[in-house]
Amino acid sequence: MVSTLHPRPYKIFAGSSSEDLGGRVASHLGATLGNCLLSTFADGETRFEIKENVRGLDVYIVQSTYNPTNHHLMEMLVMCDAFKRASVRSICAVVPYYGYSRQDRKPAPRSPITARLVADLIQVAGFNRLICVDLHAGQIQGFFNFPVDHLFSMGVLYQGLKETLAGRDDLTVVSPDAGGTERARVMAKYFNAPLAIVDKRREAPGKAKAMNLIGDVKGRIALLVDDMIDTAGTLVAAASLLKEQGATEVWASASHGVFSGPALERLSNPALDKVVVTDTIPLKEGFKKLSKLQVVTIAPLIGETILRIQRNDSVSALLE
Questions:
Q1: CA 118, 123, 125, 131 torsion-angle sign
Q2: Is 167 left (phi over 0), alpha (psi -120 to 50) or beta?
Q3: What is the 3-state secondary structure (H, E, C) of the chain?
Q4: What does the alpha-carbon distance between residue 54 and residue 71 come to, in Å, rounded to a whole number?
């Protein structure tokens, strides 16, 4: 139950990577984005200036750090520094897509743990809190020494899928690899559907090969559930295997549509019948014409989270 107390004064600003999403979040809360100037100098350096009084406010900066990741990350840090010097009460980084999240450990000797480096940069810049959506590795929350609200998009994706798939007795939810089993299990519970797992082998970075299927999809609709679609290699390999195993249709859902390199060509593969993602990352032009691609917005979930924080209400109750 949400508190009836009025929220503390706050303001939402958006970086260049998430202007549309930031606007949707603000609109959900009956507000508008804060007034600021965000551009680049002639030499490529980030230029930022706050155009209104923010003294004593809680400030939320909405910025996904996708490609160009380094630019969007630096832009967010510059914005934070400006707000810190403008005497705000607190600064929360709203990072729907957390870049570098796949580099959360040392996969080989003498490798960086870049997800931790990004966490250090965010903290040193002056942020007091983080809101993020479906981290690639949940343990990244432990890299921070301040509150982290880790939101899950499964409920949002379910809302986008249920009109067509809810109540079907021929649906099987599939994890494209063993690591995503827990995520797929949540979606399977939503649909009250059985679960299957693809045994995947990664031959090289960005190259995956689906080897075996644990479970049965013959004569059934298969719904692949993942946290992100990057080059779509894993997705297409899994979809092809599922069709070979007798699936009548293969659907896919993912929190983050990263869509790099050959993703557009791969998503056009007839093995995939439908792909649903959230708007943590805006679609590039070429993908907007892909009829099988559907986008559902994460804005209400982020907006409600902000409202609960401002009212000192439980965020976990919202997720439940």
A1: positive
A2: left
A3: CCCCCCCCCEEEEECCCCHHHHHHHHHHCCCCCCCEEEEECCCCCEEEEECCCCCCCEEEEECCCCCCHHHHHHHHHHHHHHHHHCCCCEEEEEECCCCCCCCCCCCCCCCCCHHHHHHHHHHHHCCCEEEEECCCCHHHHHHCCCCEEEECCHHHHHHHHHHHHCCCCCEEEEECCHHHHHHHHHHHHHHCCCEEEEEEEEEECCEEEEEEEECCCCCCEEEEEEEEECCCHHHHHHHHHHHHCCCCEEEEEEEEECCCCCHHHHHCCCCCCEEEEECCCCCCHHHHCCCCEEEECCHHHHHHHHHHHHCCCCHHHHHC
A4: 25
- Could you identify the residue written with the tokens 């056009």? 268
The pTM for the full model equals: 0.92
State the catalytic residues: 200
CB 72 within 8 A of CB 96: no
222's tokens: 């298969």
**Residue 61 identity (one-letter amino acid):** I
Residue 68: cis peptide before it, omega within 30 degrees of 0:
yes
Residue for token digits 């090969």?
Answer: 209
Q: Give residue-wise pLDDT tens across range 246-278.
A: 999 999 999 999 999 999 999 999 999 999 999
Mean pLDDT to the nearest integer, 32-61: 97
pLDDT tens digits, residue range 89-138?
999 999 999 999 999 999 899 999 999 999 999 999 999 999 999 999 88
* Strand order, beta sheet including 90-95: 10-14, 58-62, 90-95, 129-133, 148-151
Single-letter residue type at 15: G
